[in-house]
Amino acid sequence: MNNALRILLGKDLVVLDGDGTLYIGSRPLPGAREFIRFLDEHGKRYVIMTNNSSFSKEHHIKRLRRILGRFFSYDEVFISTEAAIEYLYDTGVRRVYALGTPEFIHDLVSSGIHHDPERPEIVVIAFDKTLTYGKLVRAVRHIMAGTPYIVVNPDILCPTDRGYIPDTGSIWALIRTATGKDPMAVTGKPSSLFLNYMLRKLSVRPSDAVIIGDRLYTDIAMANENGVTSILVLTGETKIEDLVNSRYRPTFVVNTLIDLLK
Asked: What is the set of domains in the chain, with CATH numbers?
């Protein structure tokens, strides 16, 4: 048994990224199903933690079942939308204008956050696959007029069956360039807010968890900044040469989840 797997089995919780780690688009990555089956067979507690805010939690659960062949409960999947909602509640905000998909807006409204394009307290920038120029103009005008904004996740690209597409981080770059203003907060990975929200729900300490992901600036950064063991897989955005100049250092690096099982 390799050191990475030995340490993983000694942790109380395995935190798995989705896009680029377990799957790309609608297909599982090499070793994903085998790794999930291995964790189940060894009775390991694990969750999927994704920054993809374009889908609702229910959509993610159905998608995971199709891709990985296993049913996931509501407490086994955490999405960045939940961290954004937690932040809005903690700051007392109930009225927002959001750049987000209909599913994202629905999740906000269902949680008691009113979507108000005219008089928002905060602008919310999410992974909006329904983005239009008109929506961008409205967001920029609100921010230029003094309305603060938050970013749901900083991912620049999202992998799909047909290649990479612009993610929230790319939309954020446009907003920041147009307004010259930085957000109040980034609520998804690598934010400690998202990690602490999840760990609090599951009653797990950071030192008792291990994070497996494919991005240095989200998955590994969150692990580094919170004292969590991390495993980088090279099946997504990060390439081995990216480690040379990166400030973020994974505890272990493997090419695929299959290699982790070897």
From this structure: 3-51+189-261 (3.40.50.1000), 82-186 (3.40.50.1000)
